[in-house]
């Protein structure tokens, strides 16, 4: 029987199936750039038709069939008239793109999505291109969202993605060779981390969280972990995602408003995810020097283990951040460390650490939000008001902006 689709909206279904449809076409035909164009046209056709006609019994099969037809047209358009009929005969498998009968598994496997991840992280691509292409092809983010995540203009990101697609044109659709496996895996994990972050806290829009993206990142990371169960970075990343996403049920209020960590109802946190994530991070830390994902997961575990905010082991969190920023210096990790410094040594100490990040994070709403919170704790009402307003004006997320404006309004009141 086809898998049940009732809990999903049309948008959910399209995002869920898009990478698998793309993987199926690239696996059979190659031509990544043309295949993605064909899939996008199939998605647009579905978005127009399905709300009126209803979702097909096999939405993935429907998308593959429509995209394959469009891809055949695109490929034919690139052939000379002399080769057109020969090419068309080769490009039309008799039954490969028909919807599978009940009980048959002709639909593309989820493994296609994982292979697509490795293709997007091909060694001929630069790291920024790998990330951008995978977010576009597998994560389903728009070019504008990817550009905002990387702090570059949208036109620049569009050119980067286009060049990346051309670069891997003709690359076989298969798993990487052993020689470049480690480099490709590191890029894949970074991309999965970015997809999860976009799902857990959307960079823009009316919803704080894009659960489909977060769940897809967890699913794909589980798939990588099933293949590489003893890899510390893979295990650490899966642990980090589970421990972070466990708090999702308590992150928003009845009207979708943001609820900060220290105000969340911790009884709503997903205990099974916390238990699994804690076991995974303990396993990862026992296998030698900790990488960035293992250290961040250990921080997340300490937060999740605290029954109440005042029970949080901030000295231990600060110690982990000290190791993290020493080994992997990165502005957002240093901003997290600044919060930990404030919780251990007071808001004035935290503000000094925030000041050191001004050049690298100037204008970023998270820097202003942390500054505002610490200024409020320090008793600087006017300074906190200014920082809250600056943060609210800089974020593209409506729930975050409402939360920050609410904090400012509370100070004004």
TrEMBL record:
Residues 184-284 form the DUF6596 domain. Belongs to the sigma-70 factor family. ECF subfamily. Residues 82-109 are annotated as: Disordered. This is Sigma-70 family RNA polymerase sigma factor. Keywords: Sigma factor, Transcription, Transcription regulation. Residues 13-79 form the RNA polymerase sigma-70 region domain. Pfam families: DUF6596 (PF20239), Sigma70_r2 (PF04542), Sigma70_r4_2 (PF08281). Residues 117-168 form the RNA polymerase sigma factor 70 region 4 type domain. InterPro entries: DUF6596, RNA_pol_sigma-70_dom, RNA_pol_sigma70_r2, RNA_pol_sigma70_r4_t2, RNA_pol_sigma_r2, RNA_pol_sigma_r3/r4-like, WH-like_DNA-bd_sf.
